[in-house]
Records
---
Amino acid sequence: MVNKQGQTRLAQYYEYLNLEERRALEGEIVRKCLARNEQQCSFVEHRTYKIVYRRYASLFFLVGVDNGENELAILEFIHLLVETMDRHFGNVCELDIMFHLEKAHFMLEEMVMNGCIVETSKANILAPIQLMDKAS
Amino acid sequence: MGSQGGFGNSKEFLDLVKSIGEARSKAEEDRIVLHEIETLKRRIVEPDIPKRKMKEFIIRLVYVEMLGHDASFGYIHAVKMTHDDSLLLKRTGYLAVTLFLNEDHDLIILIVNTIQKDLKSDNYLVVCAALNAVCKLINEETIPAVLPQVVELLGHSKEAVRKKAIMALHRFYQRSPSSVTHLVSNFRKKLCDNDPGVMGATLCPLFDLIAVDANSYKDLVISFVSILKQVAERRLPKTYDYHQMPAPFIQIRLLKILALLGSGDRQASENMYTVVGDIFRKCDSTSNIGNAVLYECICCVSSIYPNPKLLEAAADVISRFLKSDSHNLKYMGIDALSRLIKISPEIAEQHQLAVIDCLEDPDDTLKRKTFELLYRMTKSSNVEVIVDRMIDYMISINDNHYKTEIASRCVELAEQFAPSNHWFIQTMNKVFEHAGDLVNIKVADNLMRLIAEGFGEDDDTADCQLRSSAVESYLRIIGEPKLPSAFLQVICWVLGEYGTAGGKYSASYITGKLCDVAEAHSSNDTVKAYAVTALMKVYAFEIAAGRKVDMLPECQSLIEELSASHSTDLQQRAYELQAVVTLDAHAVEIIMPSDASCEDIEVDKNLSFLDSYVERSLEQGAQPYIPENERSGMINISNFRSQDQHDTSTHTLRFEAYELPKTSAPPRISPVSLAPSTELVPVPEPSYPVEMHHVASVPSVSDTGSTELRLRLDGVQKKWGRPTYSSPASSSSDSTSHKAVNGVTQSDVSSTSTSRTRDSSYDSRSAQAEISSEKKKLAASLFGGPSKTEKRPSSTSHKVARSTSPAVEKSQGPKAVASSTTGVVSEKAAPLQQPPDLLDLGEPTVTSSASSVDPFKQLEGLLDPTQATSAANHGAVDNTKAADIMSMYSEFPPSGQSSVIANPFTTNAGDANLIPGLSTTNKTGHAKGPNPRDALEKDALVRQMGVTPMSQNPNLFKDLLG
């Protein structure tokens, strides 16, 4: 997750990269995506994989996938994530994610494991987070 | 909403987030983070930090790492936090640890213990948190430590736990397949779990397993089909619905699995036809997610055993994708087309123009995808057009990764389908010129071989033409700066071999050019070596032809310089050249026969030419030769091998002693006597220091590359040249016969057609038709479809290609307008296309967004007339404005904002706030409009926290979903 200025707002990797590699990778792909206009398609090839990205107001959501993945489905997965966050935070905005970084991560943890989409029911995704909220 | 109560964080944290949020540059952000690191280093080691505070520190550490700085000083605190009793703290601890550490980090060992304990917890949320960590942190060595517990959890009463346990096993499988081989049956069992979430998760490991070995899972086809059927029939809980589609992500994964299982298996495929057909019918083609499922259906259909009905349905969907205005759908359409084209090549024809549009689209992603499609549909009839296009594209891009890929594809296609050798050489020249350092060096060898062999048959004149055209093109290119080394080698070789052959160019001209090359690339020994050998050949041919050799002064100085070179190879070549030049015509002709690079060199293995010499020596009392094995009494086979090694390493130092001479020494070329040959043998690099022979071996030194290659490839089927050329039936031979008369026919046709077009060019419509007829031509040449016209346009004759009959042109009219006005349409289409992204909350998108377009435009016109008139970047501006306007109601009118900010988006937003009425009207159409009160509350809260929306980054407050 990156904002319009290319600043990272949330990052999750499913294959380990060290700090340097992350920095370089993020810089490269963010530059590529921010340079595109809204008519162009939401997919960018980068080396051996593809970036699927989607913009919401000030935030860009970028997902790197390998070649076998269904790009359109990933695009909708991003929307599902945003809808889920919207349901939890109510009118979610960049600042919500910044203040509740761990919660955004928890949601993502419920939805994606080992790089696969495992859960797409909003109720199931949010249940543990709501329980935790209640407990504390 | 409950989560927002006061944010539960300290002022410090809020300040940090605020300052990061407002940082305007990476440098500013870095400064903030570096300062934060200092603070944290100091604070985090203080004694008795309250737990809540500690959690905050950990999150701050996460920020530090996320923004690209090292936070390793705090890792241990994250590890400690995983021990905490509080669920929230524990989970935060686990989260931080998974973000910080890779699975081989030293600290992991401290966590494994905690994980083991937590896996046994009564609180299922704790178990879930631990399983999440298992998926990230357990490596091959630690798998046994948690495996039994994970397996036990597969039977847990909570579905969330079962789901995560399955994924943990999946992780173990990814890490080390052997660790879970005995547990694979669990995946099969869990497929039948009565919780859809567990079932959906199980599809992930099953997909991986089936991708490796589909045969072991054929029995599951029926189960997968019935699950898919149930999903499509909406038997799953409503919570899995997404935009009215029943569990689309599960459907997609099931389709992927079926594609694997049905591939090349007719029986399995037949079980799938009904359900896939049902999905084709049921899918909502107006939503993105519906199209995503449809696309997956096409992938599945093109992978399983073909079924005509499904292929038809797939073709329909593809044509809808391609006709769409959305670039995303076009992209998917092109991709789907390239999958389906393998099974039914004829479907490409109807999409010719759409494909051409995509090819010419400024969007690089789309263009690249289209090239992939073209690559897959190349045949001998369209290879010229496709490769030309690819080369143009290759030249236009900078990214080496893609350049290499495209260059190798060009080479591959050219080698496979080249219609003529001449074309092949020209194409290779272009590839070398622009990407020479990126292509495989073998390609250079092949090119030289082709030029040397020519058509390989009795057509000598054609060969000569080919060579002289190659020489000419190289003389033209040779002066260019920065030619890749591999290409220069080819150039030098060809010039040396054939530069003076036609009599068109004088030796001094060619040698001058070669000297230039050697000088211009003084740091590249390989190029210099090629150049020197080429020089030698040119001189040798001159001498053999009886002409006097006047070595150019620059050439002389070059030779002198090289004879003192540090490279022994260069030195040797220079000396050889000097030696050759002093010989008489007869000797030179034998050493260096003209145009003999692919003659087989005859080798007399028995060395019969030495017989007289031996006899004479014996008469003079010399000892007779005793074979080595007789002398030592050993049969030494390994000597042969060492001999070979010796050959290959002639240029390096040898550390072992030289072998004794033996009769089975590598055969040599006879420089003196032309003894009758007994055998044909590949010529290894000569390695014997016999004076006379040394000189004789000269030609083979330079030619080894090509000769050896040639010999090795003998008997291998030719990739290009006559056979393939003539085989693709009449179509391709037609095309060349046209080519032959191109010069004549083209000229008169073009004169008539241009005059006609000039007449009609008053009418803008016909101008468009003209453009599209060009496109159509291109399409025809690519697809060879029904619109194929008399003449195939070659790459350079696009203008000539307009010479279609008027009837065709006319019939193309309306269609052409449609396709070529996309530029105009897209302006309108852009707002149509984008708002759904932001607003798409379930209502029928087409109508609502269409109605919401106009107010924007009006608004825009009211606010900013100058911008409204500049139609060029309408689309983009429209969209961003739409987003801003939609969400800006939540902001307080920023005072003095317009003076601070140069950003057009935000100024627009500011304007929008002045007319709140208009923006609210836009919301009326939405089922779930944003709630202004929520936003205001939130805003007030944020202000209390000390973050003011009027500061630099008002975007922070923008609702993502508008």
---
Amino acid sequence: TSLSTIHHRRKIKNSAGDPLPITTLQFTLVFLEIYNNMDRKRSSLNLFEDIDLNYKATELRLGLPGTDDQPEIKTSLSGNKRSSSEMESSTCTDENESRSASPTKEQVVGWPPVRSYRRNIVQGKKESSEMGSGMYVKVSMDGAPYLRKVDLKMYRSYEELMEGLQKMFKCIIGLYSEREGYNGSQHAPTYEDKDGDWMLVGDVPWEMFITSCKRLRIMKASEARGLDDSL
Amino acid sequence: MVYSLPEEVLEHVFSFITLDKDRNAVSLVCKSWYEIERWCRRRIFVGNCYAVSPSIMTRRFPEVRSVELKGKPHFADFNLVPEGWGGFACPWISEMSRAYPWLEEIRLKRMVVTDESLELISTSFKNFKVLVLSSCEGFSTDGLAAIAANCRNLRKLDLRESEVMDLSGHWLSHFPNTCTSLESLNIACLGSEVSFSALERLVGRSPNLKILRLNRAVPLEKLSTLLCRAPQLVELGTGAYSSGIRSDVYSSLSKAFLGCKELKGLSGFWDVDPSYLLAFYSVCSRLTSLNLSYATIRSPDITKVISQCPNLQRLWVLDHVEDSGLNAVALSCKDLRELRVFPSDPYIADANVTLTEQGLVSVSEGCPKLQSVLYFCRQMSNSALITIARNRPNLICFRLCVIEPRAPDYLTLEPLDVGFGAIVEHCKELRRLSLSGLLTDRVFEYIGRHAKRLEMLSIAFAGNSDLGLHHVLSGCDGLRKLEIRDCPFGDKALLANVAKLETMRSLWMSSCAVSYGACKFLSQKMPMLNVEVIDENGSLDSRFDSCPVEKLYIYRTVAGPRSDMPGYIRTIDRDRVNTIS
């Protein structure tokens, strides 16, 4: 069961009675909080409800164990109670049911068998981008009548972003150099960062840029030079 | 009349025998060979630090130069072993500092090492050369500073994947200016920035430096400086591989790589900016090892790089490589021995990348020397596994992780028994196997019947009954390590195969169906085994034999029960003590 399926099914209403879609992030946080407070004892003991433990089990025998039992080759997932309830509890609407059910992938400890430093590295990248799809920022160009929006996640490098902006605004932005900025062209791309400062695009690594960029502004070169001089 | 060769001659002959197995065999021939051999054994490997005690080791082998120890069970990598379980290096290091003044090499894996121990190492061994701490924890950069400062002839400092308390990057400056012996330095796991000027000077005065693995904090702009200082490098791990738009960085990086004529292995590549990938193209044709498993770049970029590397023997990559990238591998990398494909997003249900069983099938077809596979994917079929097995009977290590537990063959919805059965049947030299997907007792029947060379087996969410475990324990003659989680295996198979347990290094079972009574019985009947029941929640009621155990770790030992067990480990001795007191 993917979280997105759960997301679509769960809606809470606001005071006006209109359903409010709960974001995947909010749902995950609530779910994790419930799970972490669960009494884990229950879930581990559930595993043994089907198993008949008797003292015969401690007997040493020469024959193959289980020769009196007929081993069934089961093709369904009903190996034990836990797994069958995993299939049933896809709605996860009942806390108690989810407690005895096999947890979703995120909750099974140590599965898939990926080491924690590997998980962190890739997830670190995920967390750095916004939840939900797209990372849209407004783009204004000096002299243009209206603003546009671009999805920063569509680009993988500054080159691609510049290409996209140049196509969108039919302008030439030109080449960046550390010393000169965007000298030699009519326009210079700037962005507003998390602190509210206006920065020249291109100084910091791409990943850092897309997490701190709140909006873009393509300035006229003459104005941009003023930006440069003040540095 | 007994006619034998003089001791010196025998010693000289024995010096050519390096494998532990062979050394052990030599020592069993007769008393005098035992004596000669024990005096000239220089390397010791202890696969389970609790199987033997430090004093037993030093008593038998007085002239050791290199010791390798392993601590926690493998499943500790996936957080299945609780905190404080053990694997403490301290008693070993204390004993070695007393008994082996000429010790040169220490290699530890999954052990808890303290700063005090590191300091002791740095001051006890005058000719100390090699320290490898693999997946270790418990120490800080202060301990590293002691090693740097005191080990005059240090050749190798390798912290691979250890968890280090990173207090500051200053420790690196403790290498004295006279230290010029460094051959290998791996600090990739460190979080904080090391002093770059100290690093640059260290690299500059180490003419024998062959392996350098930087941490993420070393910026790309500085990499060319280091490469220019060490053009003799054979293996390089970069730091973060992105920068602003800096054409000067790009050009100096390209030039620096051009100067590295010996470079054969690359790793690192955190935060990759694809536009910088071309910078190391000059090296690609010589590369035998490439680790892009931290690089979240997309398939076309990965494919471009891989197609430039015809001599690749080892490739580690994220599932962003996709089937198309693996097709490129199959076409270009005819010398490939080892492939590892890691999941970029292990926790989402649906694949966001097109990596399927097809990629692995292509590589198995195109790469005749492929021996070792680690593959995470979201779908698998019996026919794909059968094809892989037929293509590559030379596989030695096959670890497949289908991400969804108990996922069946996606084409037929049947269990993957037949597929894995084909793997063990065709790959007669298979030494390591990890199973996943929907599996019944049948697959274990195949494994028991065919996998005679198998040494390590990992099982999760598989099987129907004790018969499965019985097949493995009774059939796999070479089995040394068995780790099982979430399988319906109980007492019967264990108790029917007690003798087997003494021939193995260790057995781990968690979330299975073993009862406390069976553990007690095993413990009583088998004094050469330590039977450790892990009861984290405190829910184990020892009055009831039928009470199930959460986690169980059984290993053979000549050192008796260990004295450093945390409170949550239950043994019969402890219970006896508790009932008496």
